[in-house]
Amino acid sequence: QTFFSEREQTVTSWSFRQDTVIVGIRYRAVLAKDLPNGLRHGDPLQLDGVSEFVFEGDKIIRLTDRS
């Protein structure tokens, strides 16, 4: 079931600290159906958030997303 008729994620920034990479992300979408919270088909959504990746060696050991 498709919730979006369009969607796009764009990286807006990168920041590096020792074992951590912080990535700024802009998310844009258009709803393909009505939602129970009152959002309607065709409504646009835009969210700005941050994803934080923590590495140990060559593996990601933690990923935290926040807006």
In words, what does this structure look like?
0% of the residues lie in helices and 70% in strands. With 67 residues, it is mainly β. The protein has strands spanning 4-17, 20-31, 44-56, 59-66. It starts with a strand and ends with a strand. The protein is elongated, with a radius of gyration of 15 Å. Strands 1-2-3-4 form a four-stranded antiparallel β-sheet, with no helix packed on it. A hairpin with a 2-residue loop joins strand 3 and strand 4. The chain has no helices and four strands.
Task: Count the beta strands.
Answer: 4
- Sheet of most strands: 4 strands, antiparallel
What level of helicity do the residues show? under 10%
Termini Cα gap: 25 Å
Task: Determine Rg (CA atoms, Å).
Answer: 15 Å
Shape: elongated
The protein's oligomeric status is single chain
Arithmetic mean pLDDT: 95
Strand content: over 45%
Question: What's the arrangement of strands in the largest beta sheet?
Answer: 1-2-3-4
The residue ranges in which pLDDT falls below 50 over 5 or more consecutive positions are none
Helix count equals 0
Give me the strand/helix succession.
Answer: EEEE
- Class derived from helix and strand content: mainly beta
